Amino acid sequence: MRIAVLTSGGDSAGMNPAVRAVVKAGITKGCEVYVIREGYEGLVRGNTAPPRPHRKVHRNLPAERLAHFGDDSLLKNLSFGDGPALREGAGDAEEDEQESGTLKGRHIVRVGWDDVRGWMGEGGTFIGSARSAAFRTPEGRLAAAHNLIKEGIDGLVVCGGDGSLTGADRLRAEWPDLVKQLLSSNQITQDQATTYAHLKISGLVGSIDNDMALTDMTIGAPTALHRICEAIDNINSTAASHSRAFVVEVMGRHCGWLALMAGVSAGADYVFIPEQPPKSQPWEEEMCEVIRRHREVGKRKTIVIVAEGAHDRDLNPIKADKVKDVLTEVLKLDTRVTTLGHTQRGGRPVAMDRILPTLQGIDAVNALLEATPDQPSYMIGIHENKILRIPLVDAVKQTQAVAAAIEARDFATAMSLRDPEFEQFYHAFNLTSTLEKGNRLPREKRLRVAILHMGAPAGGMNAATRTAVRYCLSKGHKPVCINNGFKGLLDDNIADVTWLKVDNWTARGGSELGTNRTLPDTDLGGVASKFQQHQFDALFMIGGFEAFSALLILEKARKDYPAFNVPMVHLPATISNNVPLTDFSLGCDTSLNALVDACDAIRQSASASRNRVFVVETQGGQCGYIAAMGALATGAVIVYTPERGINLDTLRADVRFLKARFMLDEKGKSEGRLIVRNEKSSDVYSTELITSIIKEEGGDLFDARSASLGHTLQGGIPSPIDRARAVRLTMMCMEFLEKHAHDLLQHPPHRRRGTRDTAAVITIQGSGIKFVPVEDLVAHADMKKRRAKHTWWEGIKDLSELLGGRTDLVAHK
Ligand code: ATP
Known about the structure:
Elements: E1 2-7, H1 15-28, E2 32-36, H2 39-45, H3 63-66, H4 73-76, E3 98-99, E4 102-103, E5 108-110, H5 138-150, E6 155-160, H6 162-184, H7 190-195, E7 200-205, H8 221-242, E8 245-250, H9 257-266, E9 270-272, H10 284-296, E10 302-307, H11 320-329, E11 335-339, H12 352-370, E12 378-383, E13 386-391, H13 392-407, H14 411-417, H15 420-433, E14 448-454, H16 461-475, E15 478-481, H17 485-490, H18 524-533, E16 538-543, H19 545-556, E17 568-572, H20 588-608, E18 612-618, H21 625-634, E19 638-640, H22 648-664, E20 673-678, H23 687-698, E21 703-708, H24 720-744, E22 759-765, E23 768-773, H25 774-778, E24 781-782, E25 787-788, H26 796-803, H27 808-812
Parallel strand pairs: 1-2, 1-6, 6-7, 7-12, 8-10, 8-11, 9-10, 14-15, 14-16, 16-17, 17-22, 18-20, 18-21, 19-20
Antiparallel strand pairs: 2-5, 3-4, 12-13, 22-23, 24-25
């Protein structure tokens, strides 16, 4: 198959990794791959210059060098492409001639494996994006169809926002008619009309707004959110210093995702989003009331986030300047406006904007290869952790329905048409940020909730604690925060927390409560008596494998210690991501971002010194998640995990691959290459030993160095994704505790019998979130190695190596 990929609409971080994935996956599957420069505009203009001669980088390699490739004939074929270096300024002068701001010459260009080298860590889109008026016209789409057929392309991947995917949907719907028109005007032959009777299209949603329905996340949204949160974190300190208010305007014409998520993740005071304007009219009083309450409890700073498309219930725009005037005049606050503008487009993609487009790009190619004429075109989406194919028409229709509902002032429908997550976040924001008294439960339903951290610190622990504390206060429960885990409980080390005290905790790394590895069975009787003494009605534990083990101990001890017959829940938080049955733990996104940052810097150094291999060692204990995912996100060529281990055969094959790969590089243009090794991959083949072997074997061809990332992987400031995930999952945990407490606490303490489902772990499994009784996790755990028996990311190691050029793996499969 000949497939082409284009990027369209506003650029977003993650578009380059998406194109890279499509190119590499396409080539691996035996397709010829093309990129279309300048989005639909390039498709309409097509090629007016002849193609450059086909190029094979290794064509001049002497026979003895080629012999190094052994049977790996696929690897021999990877490094070709007539794609000129596609980056800005590096193109062929004739091709890059500018005409009225757009390129003329060749817009549809065949590319090879190495043409997308190094694209993973780069923001924007190297193949260009444009808004094309021509493509909106029937003539433009006819020209586009003609160009595709002329180039022999029968599959198209479009990466763009809802407009771009609407355009793709339209092109496909009109395709039979366009082919007929081209045939009747003799622009194509009957043979061509028959061969290209169907156009196969896959959509990738590239948009910073996260405005596409039926998918949780669009490519570019995590990076945009990251930049916004960084900005607000920075504003926070100056706002507090001067007791100021800041109104921050963020992008989102029809979608309030960025504003809402920034509000949740950065701990704002008030947000304006298009889907749910303030309930009261005029809106000023509602906002002022909330902020007044915050100031009354002693808050020194105020952050209000306004989505670009915010409006009141009559659709009158609410602009940042107007909000500023209200805060200044009504509340007498010294107020400033910050418009983040194009900085939100993001630049370097965060880890998620590398992993998501990579996995989705691969599936977009698979969808093209599997497409049949009677199937709809798919948009590749994601729900929780499951990559999904959604009929493009449905997604476009539902996205347009949100805009229509807003237009009709039917805000309830607009909210309901967004993903269920959106509404959950809105509810979470309101509950934890408004200080409203109306949510309080009747006295008899109020609980004393114990909250503690266990194990090593992980990003998002503090955001989870803040949410739990504020949830409790809002509902009239009593949050009892314990410093220093179970050890602290035995020492009566209870933290003094208030609504205000936890205010800044979302952005704080580490563990504000302090964490400890002491398990409750060091003194079960003592722990039970503390449960009684403090009259705990529920327990909320945030931590990793220790927290899971602790919950198991407490659950088993229920028969001997009635004090443990209260609802108990564990929220997994560990950078190792080794808790069984959950796809993600809090902290692993932060950790991946720390790894990506470090590896980008290391790779730069490796590339600058040419011909260098860096062996990067990661934490993770006996679980290779961070190593495997980190390798995927950084484009590492080899990964070592404890699950697979290392032996002489693998090492020999790896060295052979490195030799072959470095030989393929054009003289003087060699790239540094990364290997990621989890700290516990092998007791014998240590990072140092592997580095020495590679160095020795590399001879004149390449050199090797090692770097250990150690505790830096715990990350400094938690990533917005970890913060938001912490908020959402904590809300669900609190609801879980309330629900089970309601049933359990009807009985006097000595007659309570906690059933197995009242001691549970909250897990993300595929596309759903489930509470699993802690007992049920045991069958899925390797208690000795402290990790899950089976992992969903098992294939990620192979995938990252495959994308790194390990095409010998294809032969093995
Ligand atoms: P963003 O989320 O950044 O706004 P987008 O893909 O929604 O991205 P648009 O400007 O709406 O950006 O669309 C990009 C291009 O897609 C348009 O310039 C046009 O060429 C094409 N397009 C959009 N809507 C249609 C349509 N209804 N019919 C044909 N083509 C369309």
